[in-house]
Design a protein that fits this description.
Layout (H helix, E strand, L loop, with lengths): L1 E7 L2 E9 L8 E13 L2 E8 L2 E9 L3 E9 L3 E11 L2 E8 L5 E9 L3 E8 L4 E8 L7
Antiparallel strand pairs: 1-2, 2-3, 3-4, 4-5, 5-6, 6-7, 7-8, 8-9, 9-10, 10-11
Length: 141
């Protein structure tokens, strides 16, 4: 639970206190976390700090394309997310983790407002999958 939160136009900083129950003296430990966002190069750059880890992320989005590279420090874990809308009813999403070489891909197709179809692949579990969603709009109980 945050004890104090400082908010400003581009983000916030939270201060919280935690008890260290592993020591005999039961001392309190101060923790700092925060997020900072700012518009850069037609996108939004954000930095999030929590528990000694810093996450850096850039988000570019327009009507057809979304591109999100992100990096975690100090581990230097780098990943990319890419989304492309071919039409309002056809979308492709792709995510890749550089360090582990894991990736996922998902294709979504929407027909009207009552039918959706998704097909995808997850390299981590080596699994292809598909799902269908059908809405019954005139259903009466």
């Amino acid at each position: 639970q945050p004890k104090a939160t400082l908010q400003f136009p581009f983000g916030e900083v939270c201060l919280s206190g935690e008890r260290d129950d592993e020591t005999e003296e039961k001392q309190s430990i101060a923790a700092v976390s925060g997020i900072f966002t700012t518009p850069i190069l037609n996108g939004v750059c954000s930095a999030q700090y929590s528990e000694g880890s810093l996450g850096l992320r850039y988000l570019f989005k327009d009507k057809e394309l979304t591109f999100i590279p992100s990096m975690s420090l100090p581990s230097n874990a780098l990943s990319f997310a890419f989304k492309r809308s071919f039409t309002p009813s056809d979308k492709l999403s792709y995510w890749y983790d550089v360090e582990t070489e894991r990736w996922t891909a998902v294709y979504k197709r929407k027909v009207g407002k009552d039918f959706k179809f998704k097909i995808g692949y997850d390299s981590d579990v080596r699994l292809s999958w598909a799902s269908v969603w059908v809405s019954i709009s005139d259903f009466r109980a």
